[in-house]
Amino acid sequence: QVRMVESGGGSVQAGGSLRLSCASSGNTYSTSCMAWFRQGPGKAREEVASIYTDDKGGATYYSDAVKGRFTISRDNAENTLYLQMNNLKPEDTAMYYCAARLGVSRVLCGVEPHRPPMDRDFSYWGQGTQVTVSS
Predict the structure, then answer these.
(1) Which of 16, 50, 106, 112 could pair covalently with 61 via S-S, beta carbons 3.0-4.6 A apart?
(2) How many CA atoms within 13 Å lie on the side-chain side of 48?
(3) What is each CA distance from 44 to 40, 41, 65, 88, 119, in whole angstroms?
(4) How far apart are CA 117 and CA 107, in angstroms?
């Protein structure tokens, strides 16, 4: 069992920055893969970024919508996942969720080409933190 709690959301103007955090507890040693998803008003939940960690260094994935502006990172010692969001745009307005999956599949983590992370492959979720970007 993995428990996850997000924080760091808020309201900012376009061009601003926010840093989301996701504190996890429980069987975190089994979570090679963690990710951020978001769901905007009236929209389906979509992937934002994922990070796969192993003894070879790991890998990351970013959606085209956030590539170059967002950075996902993980502090294993603190069991915390981060999402640094820069140059925010109004279309980034959404509820942001962190998620984790057990297992060692790089494909299901979305860090292999042509296959982004999918929410159905993640078993553990936080409650979400709201990000609102005004123009």
Answers:
(1) 50
(2) 27
(3) 7, 8, 15, 20, 11
(4) 8
